[in-house]
Amino acid sequence: MLNTNERLKRLIYQTLLIRRVEERVIELYPSDKIQSPVHLSIGQEPVAVGLCESMSPKDVLFTTYRGHAYYIAKGGKLPELMAELYGRKGGVSGGKAGSMHLAAPEVGMMGSSAVVASTIPHGVGAALAAKLQGTKQAVITIFGDGAIEEGVYHESMNFAVLHKLPVLFVCENNALAVHTSLAQRQAFDIVQHAKSYGINTTVIEDGNDLIKVGDIAAKLLESLRAGGGPEWLMVKTYRYKEHVGPGDDFDAGYRSRSDMEKWLATDPLYKYPEIVKEMEADVKTEIDRAVAFAEASPLPTRADLLTDVE
Fold this sequence. Notes:
Layout: H1 4-28, H2 45-53, E1 60-64, H3 68-73, H4 78-85, E2 109-113, H5 120-133, E3 139-144, H6 151-162, E4 167-173, E5 176-177, E6 180-181, H7 182-185, H8 190-195, E7 200-204, H9 210-225, E8 231-236, H10 257-264, H11 268-271, H12 273-296
Parallel strand pairs: 1-2, 1-3, 3-4, 4-8, 7-8
Antiparallel strand pairs: 5-6
Helix pairs in contact: 1-2, 1-12, 2-9, 4-12, 5-6
């Protein structure tokens, strides 16, 4: 068993890798080598890292279009991710899916989607299959606070509770749906609303706390595997970059830099600078290799157009 310091270092390494991968995407974006719109996870990486820590390879994950962090944290191969962003044949989906539709089923990353809330019922369906087949799998379905306003969220919650399915609903609450705040969108309290379904609810106020996110996720996932029925978790977090794209948008008027400063105070990559410094060279080497793989991978041809289509 890892001691606390070893565990923290491992989690920080994953967090740093995700952060630097997306910063490399920002560097590459003006060159037009990246052939896909990108929704960056910068600022929200600790949530993905903590949640995925206790997932086994057979546990499955469904996430959103802001999925780079989950792909990497769940064990997806970095060279194939970069090649997918480049639109190359060596990508996880042959360059056809792009950033918003990542999948690595071999490690339990079952897919992401550009349609808000659309992967929530997929997770519930996978949980139903796991229960019927007795596989003792846990299923995590990730969504943002904006997805709670979609009808399929409510239908999925109701079905999961009614049938006591092994699914963990995780709301990544960054308090924004594109540029619109919670207060402007919702006349209800998210947590109280979830409780009305009779589901056990948990809230993590600081999504930057890698250890807390990991510890709570471990307990909830174990309960799912033991047949305890669905769980609901809200993790408060904050995205540093614009909704879609590589830039900053603090001049848009809907939020301020002071909001971000509060989160930077607990950001593990700022909180543990000496640990980060030790890891920078290894992280850079890993990313350089992934970029080289992507750039060496061939472009799809006309013959590839209708492959993988049924």
